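Subject: design request, 104 residues
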């Protein structure tokens, strides 16, 4: 297994810890992995082929913007809203209320 796919797998394992109704950020995920490579986290999310089982729609930008999604930003917003997350103008409202931080 290559280093990149190992990093991706670690990202996917973290993702599965995020409960419905919560989100995390690319930066929080990188930090939980002992890294500053939040762009690499984004790349791993883009490569996720198991969108239902590995909920990459729950990863957003640090400013609360929902960011991109394989099925489109509107679908990402729809999925987040269906989990009870308030979104307006493609941005999570009151991000701190919904933010999941990984145990350290």
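Subject: RE: design request

Done. Sequence follows.
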């Amino acid at each position: 297994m290559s280093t990149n796919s190992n990093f991706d797998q670690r990202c996917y394992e973290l993702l599965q810890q995020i409960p419905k109704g919560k989100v995390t950020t690319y930066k929080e995920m990188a930090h939980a992995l002992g890294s500053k490579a939040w762009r690499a986290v984004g790349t791993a999310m883009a490569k996720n082929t198991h969108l239902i089982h590995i909920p990459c729609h729950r990863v957003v930008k640090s400013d609360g913007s929902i960011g991109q999604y394989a099925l489109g930003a509107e679908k990402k917003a729809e999925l987040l809203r269906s989990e009870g997350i308030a979104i307006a103008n493609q941005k999570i409202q009151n991000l701190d209320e919904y933010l999941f931080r990984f145990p350290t």
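The CA atoms of residues 69 and 104 lie 27 Å apart.
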